[in-house]
Automatic annotation (TrEMBL):
Residues that span the membrane, as ranges: none
GO MF, one annotated term: aldehyde dehydrogenase (NAD+) activity
Region Disordered, residue ranges: 501-522
Every Aldehyde dehydrogenase domain range: 17-490
Pathway it works in: Amine and polyamine biosynthesis; betaine biosynthesis via choline pathway; betaine from betaine aldehyde: step 1/1
Key words of the record: NAD, Oxidoreductase
Tagged with keyword Oxidoreductase: yes
Family listed: Belongs to the aldehyde dehydrogenase family.
Name this polypeptide is given: Aldehyde dehydrogenase domain-containing protein
Compositional bias annotation for Low complexity: 503-522
Amino acid sequence: MAECPVPPRQLFIGGAWVPPIKGQYMDVINPATEKPFTKIPAGTSEDVDAAVAAATAAFKSGHWSRTTGEYRAKFLRAIAQKIRDDKLVLAKTETMDCGKPIDEAEWDMDDVATCFDYYAGQAEALDARNGPSAPAIDVGMAEFEVRVRREALGVVGLITPWNYPLLMATWKVAPALAAGCCCVLKPSELASLTCLELAAAAEAAGLPPGVLNVVTGTGAEAGAPLSAHPGLAKVAFTGSAATGRRVALAAAGNLRPASLELGGKSCLIVFDDADVEKAVEWAMFGAFWTNGQICSATSRLLVQRGVAPAFLEQLKKRAEAINVCDPLTRGCRLGPLVSEGQYRRVLDYIQSGKSEGAQLLTGGGRPPAPALPPRGGYWVAPTVFTGVQPHMRIWREEIFGPVLSVAVFDSEAEAVQRANDSEYGLAGAVISGCPDRCRRVSEALECGIVWVNCSQPCFCYAPWGGIKNSGHGRELGEWGLENFLSVKQVTKYVSKDTWGWYSPPSQQGEQQEGQGQEGQSP
């Protein structure tokens, strides 16, 4: 068994490391070798109950929820610094856990630290938004002063995916903590190690017990009980559309909201006035980054007919030159898929593309990379299909692997129509030398994120989320903080005058007496 970069961990509940109540553990498999290298606790509903109870006690104590944003910001910045200090170890752990190339994993750790720092600033800004100097709402009546307070929702359940294990958890944990919420985090069982290390970072930072709890385990045994738990104020989920539906229904059973960042089948449109070399680079980045396992991947590619031959020629050459090797090697640009199940799913889609008549331009199986062992590992070469038709599964369904489906178009209107003809609406992209065309297309695309002359850049300062079957709600930026805040109206009567809707008792008696005298005979 290869040595794990981090020590074995238990569940983190109530500020302590505790074994799972049923005493069960799961192997962690290195997708590059298919061999186990450590274990994680297999939490169950009993552990979820304990975590929610710990978070509830912490929230009700007020030791976190009723503090200032300035106070909470110190802890967030301390966590950010701990992530920076442990960056290399965390990145190596994540690469061994999910197959992400080491250069990408280190980049992710930088983003994790930046995100915690950003929400530390948001927590501090929240003090001013709730303070006495915050502007009142003009309600058109001088007798009333109306203000708004933003308060922590309560205990929140956070369910996160395996493709960006620590970063996706941070997208939820950091704003939730900044808002004053207490959290129960359930990471994907396919990549939980760095989320347990996040708990260790929080412990090192002195985060009060119960504010952050981490329960590892399967979706059925831990995720489902968490999403349906009546003790939660909200559930935040990132994952597939199918699982997202179940999470939303479970939360709705308790009349609780669920924000959902779900799948996608995003489209990149390349017009014939684009710089071919730059466009090919972005097309590859949009489809093969993180081994193609990205919800926002621009895995549908529409190329205008005039530039298609030159574009596809270069795309084939560049895709076949991608450095596929041990993901712990510097310069690796494509690693293995996360698990055997995902590996078989992607190969099934590739077979479907062939069966339905798409032309395989390159890839389609295990990469012929000399740096790879002859057997072992969940490797799929960068794969490109051309001649893809709208009815084909590889065009319509989310594959979540390094598979790019290409079609040709003639007019701008046709391109926009075909891009929007999808059940998903997470992201889209346009590459053109014409600024007006880029503006028109970005406005016409039905999605939550549009990239112009690029694909996939993401910043913690800007909103992230989609429409249609890609979910609802927004993460990141100030919108990410609002996810975990409740808005309270506080209205104060400021006039010195009596409200005067009802007459005082003495006046009522005088009125009644006067009415009686008027009714008497002279």
